[in-house]
TrEMBL record:
It is found in: Membrane. InterPro entries: AA-permease/SLC12A_dom, Amino_acid_permease_CS. Its main location: membrane. It is a multi-pass membrane protein. GO terms for cellular component: membrane. PANTHER family: GABA PERMEASE, GAMMA-AMINOBUTYRIC ACID PERMEASE. The chain crosses the membrane at residues 25-47, 53-71, 92-114, 126-148, 160-187, 207-228, 249-270, 298-323, 344-363, 369-390, 411-433, 445-463. The keyword Protein biosynthesis does not apply. Residues 24-457 form the Amino acid permease/ SLC12A domain. The keyword Signal does not apply. This is GABA permease. Pfam families: AA_permease.
Amino acid sequence: MITNQPNSIDDSSQGLKSGLKPRHLTMISIAGVIGAALFIGSGSVIYSTGPAALIAYSLGGLLVLLIMRMLGEMAVLNPDSGSFSTYADRGIGRWAGFSIGWLYWSFWTLLMGWEAFVAGKILNSWFPFIPIWGYMLLVTISLVWVNLRNVKNYGEFEFWFAMIKVVAIVLFLVIGSLAVLHLWPWGDASMLGGVTHLTSNEFMPNGFSAVITALLGVMFAYMGAEIVTVAAAETNNPAKEIRKASNSIVWRIILFYVGSMFITVCLIPYNNPLLKDPTWGTYSVTLTALGIPEARHIVNFVVLTSVCSCFNSALYTCSRMMYSLSKRGDAPKSFASTNRNNSPWIGVIFSSIFSIIAAYLTATESMNIYDVLMLATGTVSLYVYLVIAISQLKLRKKLEAEGKEIPFKMWLFPWLTYVVIIFIVVALITMVIEGTYFKEVSYTTLLAVFIVALGICAQKFNWGKDSLNKTKQDKINLTDHS
């Protein structure tokens, strides 16, 4: 059960130190929403959905807004490095906290390998004297080193990574807005003008089911907004920072995603084949049409910083999730070990395992095997959000029954929570029936079922808890003896 806690975590018991500053948290919350999927992956969403991609990104943004509000309600009361995994443990049961923690870890650790591959391809295209796998190892080792140091180093790297992304997006929005208003003097947009492609083509060419199906790609892009609730546990005032991040997410989504999609669908035909080409992407196609010289190289630089940012945050989040699971007896005790910089070093190194595997597969020209593994990450975001909603529903009812004060509340409880749960379930069913993302839903579900089975066994047979309780009792006895 969640109870009121001090604003900062107990350093002596947790082993983590408050090293992140408010400016770090601000940029981490922004970086969590902006990934390479905005610059590249959003093009395929527009191509398959048409201008109605605006609806898909708006619906996805609304869902994330509500999820962050629910997560914020729980996190303000009890900031924890395990975030929603801890709340699932308390609200639903140990099996749920175990399952969603390991599923979330699986998502990010697999994604790190892919991010390293993208970074390697970009660097190799510029400096081909080092093979892709060599750059992958370089990126992995460099960011592992960052995460083995004091947490403020992670915060500083994320601050500047996020700053580059924000500046790039703002410039894109300014240039695109000038073109929409007939004020941009170069490129094709000056001849086509305004909102031509938004109004002259069918708004929803493939029907509303395509919008729901596109939601999977959208949610994959939004995944990471919740990282701020993990990072906030290592600040001096986590409750304040979580509240601020939860309140500001709406303008970040509207400005960065919906704004970028609006500019693109106004200026570029939705059926432009370059939009679905992963070597181009939304920003490259649009900026090239606007006559920006070397647009692809400029965007590739932004994408490089974006994938490095994603890798950095993923490694940080994986290590903290392992740390929290270990503290609860749901992962080996060694994952709670911290070095002199108060970094959970074993968790950091172990979480980079798939990045090394990806580098090996690239070196042996077998990266297609990794593509199959990536299918298992497809719908993790929706399962995570579903668990967050159910946890908030149960914990809020418990708190209200006990008469506890809740300083940061979900709106229109419990009705909006129920709406979110129903929407996620319907979206998953639609994706299976429609078929476009059948493999992603199936593979992720199989992975989830396997981990849930382990979680149920862990709860039933009390795996890890006996040794954990013994360790706690030994500490108590030692204190009493002293």
